[in-house]
Amino acid sequence: xxxxxxxxxxxxxxxxxxxxxxxxxxxxxxxxxxxxxxxxxxxxxxxxxxxxxxxxxxxxxxxxxxxxxxxxxxxxxxxxxxxxxxxxxxxxxxxxxxxxxxxxxxxxxxxxxxxxxxxxxxxxxxxxxxxxxxxxxxxxxxxxxxxxxxxxxxxxxxxxxxxxxxxxxxxxxxxxxxxxxxxxxxxxxxxxxxxxxxxxxxxxxxxxxxxxxxxxxxxxxxxxxxxxxxxxxxxxxxxxxxxxxxxxxxxxxxxxxxxxxxxxxxxxxxxxxxxxxxxxxxxxxxxxxxxxxxxxxxxxxxxxxxxxxxxxxxxxxxxxxxxxxxxxxxxxxxxxxxxxxxxxxxxxxxxxxxxxxxxxxxxxxxxxxxxxxxxxxxxxxxxxxxxxxxxxxxxxxxxxxxxxxxxxxxxxxxxxxxxxxxxxxxxxxxxxxxxxxxxxxxxxxxxxxxxxx
Length: 453
Hints:
The protein is of the alpha/beta class. It has a domain at 5-10 and 67-109 and 233-446: Rossmann fold. It contains 19 helices and 15 strands. The protein has helices at 42-45, 51-58, 68-74, 86-92, 113-125, 139-151, 161-166, 168-176, 190-198, 206-219, 232-238, 240-252, 267-281, 299-302, 345-352, 363-377, 383-402, 420-427, 438-446; strands at residues 5-6, 16-18, 63-65, 82-84, 97-102, 130-135, 154-160, 180-184, 223-225, 258-262, 288-294, 304-309, 318-323, 357-361, 407-412. The strands form four sheets. The protein has a seven-stranded mixed sheet with strand order 1-4-5-15-10-11-14, with helices on both faces. Helix 13 links the parallel strand 10 and strand 11. Helix 5 (113-125) runs parallel beside helix 6. Pfam families: PALP. This is Tryptophan synthase beta chain. Tetramer of two alpha and two beta chains. GO terms for molecular function: L-serine hydro-lyase (adding indole, L-tryptophan-forming) activity; pyridoxal phosphate binding; tryptophan synthase activity.
């Protein structure tokens, strides 16, 4: 019988995170203080993050040790399985071999605990008592809630209003773990009240929710801020995904030609792709790396590579990234975890270096791909993960058209068990492809900060 699952023994779980900064041909642009436009230092980040995470953010060491207490928690679900998608290959009639790394086996149902657990642990070690954060669909919020419960941290999650309304069970999961979930924009912060004063029914955005969480953390000495994507240390923590996949593909006697990941802020994409890109930068096999984003929020394919704020309230440092403008509010499509105006600076830098390519798809086509995957492989993907499924299917059909037997690897970053309302809408024909306003995009991009070249 053909092998379907490739399982690593817990003893082979990676002991280090991989830091792609060590292998870059040129370093990414500096992070700037918005007031002075000078590179920021550790002291500028200290109100938000514990020092260990700040050191990881700026490190150029290739390997950073995963603390043993963190690895012990990881053993609840890691190493995560790698699957060969035999039934999907057959359904597509493709000569391509398709593998997927499945991160939905974590307690919270996605890849997000890979960084939530270490972030919570480092904060607890530093004596922090409370964490604030933002979340879109709720994958990150539920993961940090889970991690906070393990290490005795009080967690407050600002969830984007449209997702707060769309996904009540994700909110219930956060509360089950002991966190408090607040719809954003809210009346709990000065920035939230200012947004609501302008538009009482504002659907919210990740940029707004970040501003609210940062405001609370900056004003309270016992509180720090945790971020689920975008920053270097978050992407670093996710590289355990790609490192495990490398070992599992060796077990399969295979090596990917194409690697696909969905992209919103960049964390799961970095997790699967960075170890392979690093291998290539050190003289290894050259592969195609494909980032798939939503057509309604296309930062990599339509955004401008420029310095911008990571939040809508302009409380964060300036980072150079592919951005739609910090004031851009994406439409309320169902992949809430991908509704972010900017892309991780490190992912953006790699695109500028020509090390990855980007494409965008509308949500109906992505749900269609997710349903085909579910009926072939049995797993119902999260709406975010459907973008990676769609990207992998496109590559497999290309191989069919070209008569090429390539190996495709993608990251199935989470299950969709809390997203069934979206699937119900899809089957009822109520799910439409939403487009952003070109006028709003132009206005948001016109407001980018002025930073001398």
